[in-house]
Queue: 2 jobs
Job 1
Amino acid sequence: GTTLGASAAETGRYFGTAVSVGKLGDSTYVGILNREFNRVTAENEMKWDATEPSQGSFNYANGDRILNQAVGNGSRVRGHALAWHNQQPGWAQGMSGSALRNAMVNHITQVATHYRGRLYAWDVVNEAFADGNGGGRRDSNLQRTGNDWIEVAFRTARAADPGAKLCYNDYNTDGVNAKSTGIYNMVADFKARGVPIDCVGFQSHLTNSVPGDYQANLQRFANLGVDVQITELDISGSNQANVYASVVRSCMAVARCTGLTVWGIRDSDSWRTGQNPLLFDNNGNKKAAYTSTLNALNAG
Ligand code: G3I
């Protein structure tokens, strides 16, 4: 293939990017988006603060713009994210107990119903595990509603949109470590008890290297019976092109690694200001990391 999306498709995979609604009027941005990518994640527009700015009042305008643009270009969309401790609307941030639990359930039901049948997957729960060596849950207002909040979120999403793949998504889970093992144990438990979960996303915000057990980590999750995806890939540092290729090769070596998504198009689109972690420069030119990524996709 001669584009990221077409090359990934040759092995049945996709290649996606995060999209920001504010850039859909930028012809350079949209030109690259439509040429290179066949999967899209809304960078902010489907999050809780964006979709339910006041309780019970929903706004899908920007999420719908991203979805319609993607569908018009033959791409599918990953919903991101239904339940997360971050980017909650102000009205939810101070809530607790059954009021917050009920608000979360209603939010998931409403948003997943709005997009029912139109998304290939949802990040149902994002970043619920703690960093460091404990392997446990992150403290948050959602966690304090009870340890079952994650399975309630997944069951609620399944009921609202039975056709969407339901994913857990997190960062610093790229190698075998305490945090990824905590998530692994949760997924194994969900599978054993019939809690609906279809996929695990590995954000892969990397700095100049990738853990040596990256592929093994993807594989151990796949062996539990879930698909895995690279969901927010960006890589800073002088070894960038080699590390991108290594990440692609790891995904290609895992049958259930169904695709990769980079977290933005040009370096100037990245949340990592000044780190130049993406595949296109500020002018939209292909970088060495683009070429190494394309070659690794074509080698599969
Ligand atoms: O929209 C407002 C704008 O009106 C205001 O003028 C401006 C002033 O700061 O802020 C704008 O909102 C910003 C928003 O991005 C849209 O640009 C927020 O401040 C800013 O915090 C927000 O950052 C996003 C971040 O998530 C928030 O947690 C990034 O764009 C987005 O790339 C990032 O994405 C996350 C994933 O969802 C989850 N994994 C980590 C990843 C990187 O942090």
Job 2
Amino acid sequence: TETYENILVETKGKVGIIRLNRPKALNALSDGLVTDLEKALNAFEDDAAIHVIVVTGSERAFAAGADIKEMAKFTYQDTYLNDFITKKWGRLATCRKPTIAAVAGYALGGGCELAMMADFIIAADNAKFGQPEITIGTIPGAGGTQRLTRAVGKAKAMELCLTGRMMDAEEAERSGLVARVVPAADLMDEALKTAEKIAGFSRPVTMMAKESVNRALETGLNDGLLFERRVFHATFALDDQKEGMDAFVNKRPPNFTDR
Ligand code: CAA
């Protein structure tokens, strides 16, 4: 795999791992970092051997937000013309393969927004989530007012965006922002175990499941149900559906071929 300045990239079997790595700035999402992230995500998306992507940070910080030192001097024209922020960061949200954010420490501002672009978040018990943009004279710009509201509902999203307060992992799980909280020491083991479990299934079927769940956030119920049913029907065109069901009937483990 390629080497990058601001992230560490490795693969474990069918799992691609991206570790944000600007420790001195608590993984603040500089232009250099998000450029690296976009490239690494593109490479994993294009690699047929990779089934699942895990994005993580350090024990102290997943990411403490957009790089305030870099951003402080931007003009409106800079932000508008470059479509500042989502142009590069948004790549995580458009991945077709399943993605997991493994979050320890601070996930603030853009860090929280990046985590929310993953399919789900597994949090260490020391994780802290928040949208503190209001405290520095701006508002969330990469989904904080939208994805957070869908995840935790209006009351809590409004309170977090208006006060900038952080919520801990326990509150984040209780309110639906994170799928699961694990002891900080076990975060990567648990995230990898979960990723490997998904990676063991049929790649097209995991992608279809993801696509269908995401549809729920874009449509009314009946359109969503129709979308789901059509994709469900489509799984019957796959060798892996035949294999999975035959394996169950004959009490043997399935051997999926991603076809
Ligand atoms: N941008 C740039 N540098 C950052 C940073 C950020 N978002 N967050 C932390 N750092 C830097 C600090 O400046 C500091 O660098 P120096 O050692 O050179 O001074 C280093 O990381 C360590 O940080 P602290 O000394 O502040 O560490 P702490 O433990 O005292 O505090 C913290 C940790 C509470 C996370 C604090 O760093 C903090 O509040 N960070 C900013 C959080 C924030 O406001 N994020 C939102 C950014 S706006 C945004 O993301 C816009 C958007 O929606 C896309």
